[in-house]
């Protein structure tokens, strides 16, 4: 009798546990930021993305894997101690010109296919981390140290993102890369960083001087162009004036020729006299005989008058006049 009661009690307990198991494993909830996959005897069904309460067969027939739809990030970079020295040696990389640098990289990703994320890889996050490491090392290995430390970071970041995206797609692990951010690229110790900083400052100073020189060159070029245009304008004005003057001279000569054609002798004589007036305005004229011998000449121009010569008598008269006054 006691054994039967024990068995009945044990059966009731087992039945109650089964009922509780059925009650608590036949439903699941999906939040708006989540997605689920129902697995039936190891086979995954279609992803459930609708939020709310959902039902399934009890465990162990079916189980639900709840995964987030949010964007995750993994950090691949170095760490520094209180003295500023690098303590994480895994991020050391060699550039294309054989310099050692340290990189600090952040990768943003999310789950786009829950079935592949669960079944296609045992450790998908580790695979993503290794792929990120391989991508950044490949890109840094084909870049120069100047590009890695200065203005080439954006290009390195873009190349790393493209390479990592292709790798993750080829692995087919249900992950999509949302973004790659190259936080920083550093040199391995403080002395090298200080030296390279000095080089960078010198390069910036050089670029500043080059820009100032180009600015001065542009200014002088504009001034020269302005002077050139002014000279051209002045020359064009002189050209136009000369042309108009030549046209006026042509018109005058045409009129003279018309008059000359009417009375050649008179016009010829008038032209000779006008020419002599222009060519010999201050000349002294001499009358010569036909044989060429010098003779007494008759001055045509008026001779300059000599100043009056003062005599003693005139001086005495002037003194008497002053005394009388």
UniProtKB/TrEMBL annotation:
Q: Subcellular location, in the record's words?
A: Membrane
**What Gene3D superfamilies does this protein map onto?**
Band 7 domain
CDD domains per the UniProt record, alphabetical:
SPFH_HflK (cd03404)
The UniProt entry's GO CC annotations, sorted and at most eight, read: membrane
- Keywords in alphabetical order, please: Hydrolase, Membrane, Protease, Transmembrane, Transmembrane helix
Oligomeric state and partners?
HflC and HflK may interact to form a multimeric complex.
Q: Which family does it belong to?
A: Belongs to the band 7/mec-2 family. HflK subfamily.
**What is the protein name given in its UniProt record?**
Protein HflK
Species of origin: Sporosarcina newyorkensis 2681
The beginning of the lineage is: Bacteria, Bacillati, Bacillota, Bacilli, Bacillales
């Amino acid at each position: 009798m006691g054994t039967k009661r024990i068995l009945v009690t044990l059966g009731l307990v087992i039945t109650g546990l089964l009922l509780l198991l059925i009650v608590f494993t036949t439903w699941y909830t999906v939040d708006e930021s989540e997605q689920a996959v129902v697995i039936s005897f190891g086979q995954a069904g279609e992803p459930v993305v609708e939020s709310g309460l959902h039902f399934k067969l009890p465990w162990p027939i079916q189980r639900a894997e709840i995964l987030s739809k949010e964007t995750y990030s993994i950090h691949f970079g170095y760490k520094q101690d209180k003295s500023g020295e690098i303590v994480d040696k895994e991020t050391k990389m060699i550039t294309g010109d054989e310099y050692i640098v340290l990189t600090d990289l952040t990768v943003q990703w999310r789950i786009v296919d829950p079935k592949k994320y669960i079944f296609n890889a045992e450790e998908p996050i580790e695979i993503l981390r290794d792929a990120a490491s391989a991508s950044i090392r490949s890109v840094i290995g084909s870049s120069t140290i100047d590009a890695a430390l200065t203005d080439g970071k954006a290009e390195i970041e873009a190349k790393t993102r493209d390479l990592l995206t292709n790798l993750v797609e080829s692995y087919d692990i249900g992950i999509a890369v949302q973004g790659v951010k190259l936080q920083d690229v550093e040199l391995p110790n403080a002395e090298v960083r200080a030296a390279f900083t000095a080089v960078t400052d010198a390069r910036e100073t050089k670029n500043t001087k080059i820009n100032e020189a180009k600015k001065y060159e542009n200014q002088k070029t504009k001034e020269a162009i302005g002077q050139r245009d002014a000279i051209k304008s002045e020359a064009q004005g002189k050209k136009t004036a000369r042309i108009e003057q030549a046209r006026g001279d042509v018109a005058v000569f045409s009129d003279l020729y018309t008059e000359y054609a009417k009375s050649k002798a008179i016009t010829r004589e008038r032209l000779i006299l006008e020419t002599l007036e222009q060519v010999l305005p201050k000349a002294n004229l001499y009358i010569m005989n036909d044989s060429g011998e010098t003779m007494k000449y008759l001055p045509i121009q008026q001779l300059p008058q000599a100043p009056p010569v003062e005599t003693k008598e005139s001086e005495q008269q002037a003194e008497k006049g002053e005394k009388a006054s």
